[in-house]
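sorry for the late reply, my laptop died twice this morning and i had to redo everyting from scratch. anyway the thing you sent over, i finally got around to it. pasting the sequence first so we're on the same page, its 71 residues, then the predicted structure underneath. double check i copied it right bc i was rushing
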Amino acid sequence: KASNERMRAELEAKAHRLAAYRGGSGTLGAWLEARRAELGARIERLQLDMDAARAWVQLNQGFALDTKDAP
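ok and here's the structure:
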């Protein structure tokens, strides 16, 4: 949960930097840094989702194996 809150706060800060650049008050370097970080956070989130999906598959396969052995 804390990880989600941290990620959300980071994305919000980066969104402000992106908006500043688009509004003409920020630098291209700051925009590129914010965009790179935003993409990194999205990739991290997708990796977490993939890990959770793998865990569910393993859990479900374990239950399927257990029920085959049951009388």
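The radius of gyration is 20 Å.
thats about all i looked at so far, will dig more tmrw
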